[in-house]
Predict the structure.
Amino acid sequence: MNHTLTSTAKRTDNRPSWPRVAGMPVPAFSLMAIVLLAAIYTDSLPTGMIGGLLIMMIFGEALGFVGDRMPIVRTYLGGGAILAIFGAATLMYFPVMPDSVNTTVTDFMKGGGFLNFYIAALITGSILGMDPKALVQIGTRYFVPIIGAVIGAVVLAALAGMLVGFSIGDAVLVITLPILGGGMGAGAVPMSQIYEQLLGQPASYYISLLVPALALGNVFAIVFASLLAKLGERYPNLTGNGQIMAGVELEDHQPQLDLGALGIGVMLSLGFYVSGQLLGQLVPLHPYALMIILVALFKITGMVPQTLADAASQWYGFVARNWTFALLFGIGVAYTDLGTVIEALTPTYVMIVFAVVTGATLGAGLLGKLVGFYPIESAITAGLCMANMGGTGDVAVLSAARRMQLMPFAQISSRLGGALILLISGTGIPLLL
């Protein structure tokens, strides 16, 4: 009897140990991928959440797995995060996949609100998981590095523009402000309407000028995030490894797993999101910005019991762990036009965009240091999250930097910082013409 048990144990130990993709052994994951591909190419895949989420999870995890193991991509270009985005964009651009894949994923991301669902979980869980004193200490200083990012971006862009024959007005209005403006819906679109009123051409004309800057700036922001993470490994004194402020610890509180708490976390995140939407009917700010303020007020005033805060933190952890690569793949399909990025790749244009992102990074890092922030975390949140494409860019940048817990500060940069840029674009145009 003992001999039989020992032999069985040996046979079990000698079985091949497969790498795991999304927590699954490669053979099991491959079988899932084959089933998905068969459904896609036989036009049998359900639409809506089932088809959209399965496509995004399988392809996103596969690209993330490969990207995190490709030497140059992993080390300098953001690893799985950038491959998930641009791998998806490439599949759509050529196109390798049928149009039904594009339609299903885009409908789920935009019409189904999956991006908002994801970001709501991260904002609610990460803020409610913070120490309230730390939240106050950080929040009261955070706009200093944002201002630093704007100043740095404008100065370097103007200098680069003069070197390559751009006027200061073109370098700032056409390239710098749209990059810093908080994405398409909250940035480039209202900015084009402001330009239409003040400059005379139709808004569609300005959109065609603003979008390439936005897309290319987003690419540089993702790459810079990965490089800053590597810089932090090389020079540990520059980074808090996900902690934004020296002397203030944002504890990664891990309560005991409770399956029931996950449902509570879902309701809390969606409830706060809807509250932001309601307040947006009364207050002229982006609903995400209002949601951040609301969640922070509830946390600072102690209105959320610890059990509910723990539930929100658990849901945040589940979403970040399981759906980040899926979301990045969806961003690549629904929000990333590879053709627009390619068209923008002229040497002069690239040089100015590079100067904008560099200036935002340096300005946020330096002024963040002055108010007690770690330079790398300050540069990532107040700098790169000003220079990316809003909510989608925030996810990509923080994923590339492996600092997803900084999402609330990234959203402040994209939403409140973006509102600041719209104000600057409306009042500063006469000064630059």
